[in-house]
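User: Hi! Is it possible to get a structure for several chains at once, not just one? Here's what I have:
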Amino acid sequence: MTVRIGVIGTGAIGRDHARRINQVLAGGEIVALSDVNRASAESLKADIAPAAEVFATGEELIASQGVDAVLVTSWGTTHEQYVLAAIAAGKPVFCEKPLAATAEGAKRIVDAEVAHGKRLVQVGFMRRYDAGYVALKQVVDSRIGAPIIVHAAHRNPTVPEQYGTPMAIHDTFIHEIDVFRWLLDDDYVSARVIFPRAAARAHARLRDPQIVILETAKGTVIETEIFVNCHYGYDIQCEVVGEDGIARLPEPMAIQTRLGATLGNPILTDWKDRFIASYDVELNDFLKAAAEGTASGPTAWDGYVAAITSDACVSAQDTAGEPVAISLPERPALYA
Ligand code: NAP
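Assistant: Yes, the chains can be modeled jointly so their relative placement is included. Here is the combined structure:
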């Protein structure tokens, strides 16, 4: 079966996912597009999806009889309305992170999906599909004993002018929030944020770098440096310290050189390259489940927990290092 897909939001990631579905993966075809900027949808149609119909609104796209499943890749503040509409229509929906702009919004999606009674939502936490994280999880689950500490870093060379201190959590650290819950099979109970002296490239609206310390229900402590103007490259680090040994996330494949009396390993500079292969795997997972009329992978519950946790981390940016408690409602049986 070919799953007929509609894409809402045809900017950077929407265009890339459309390319993936029409040109890389089997099992899906882009048949519908919508964007507040119609010219953007028309341009994607001309370049990648000539057979697609361009709809004036996301709601019309979701309601179309010719659309089996939906990708929501518009701005984060608009995700909730489209995901709720897709659930109401009973159609599988892949939603880029964040699931919703607020934890309350994510809760409304969880409630709607639970009321529907079957999974329809996959959230775009693609690190769970990265070969390096998958290999790390296998070792953490089987070889190093119970995890005690995680040391991690999320470093970007630079960020746009409008990027402020809370965005380091909502847009950047959100990926760590999700992947560490999955990696450790655990939930968070508290968050602390510590600010070292500001780096020279920080500014009034961006305190950079920052260190986030999450404590889990099982007592593991995860300390992550977020440094979004580190200048030297896009660098994701993760080391898990267990009872019996240590496991590290592998570096991305790169050609090592011995040149000019120097041993060299290039470091990526663009985040798009770091997890490029994982997007293929995550969308393949979506297509397979959508063909069965359901969803797999990261759930609406995972999106909701990520939203609660990021809100706690943002609050902790203003408590001078004091912990902020994270308490989760009971997990519905649908997400057991
Ligand atoms: P982008 O390039 O700005 O694209 C978003 C598109 O959505 C734009 O074309 C925008 O229109 C359109 N749009 C805004 N409001 C809309 C609405 N109500 N209905 C329909 N279309 C609407 O942003 P992006 O980088 O692709 O990011 C999109 C989402 O994906 C964000 O939530 C982001 O966090 C997420 N993302 C995730 C990853 C990941 O690694 N998982 C990577 C990148 C992005 P105009 O700009 O023309 O007004």
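The two ends are 29 Å apart (CA to CA). Residues 8-14, 34-37, 40, 58, 73-76, 78, 96-97, 124, 126 surround NAP (CB under 6 Å).

User: Great, thank you!
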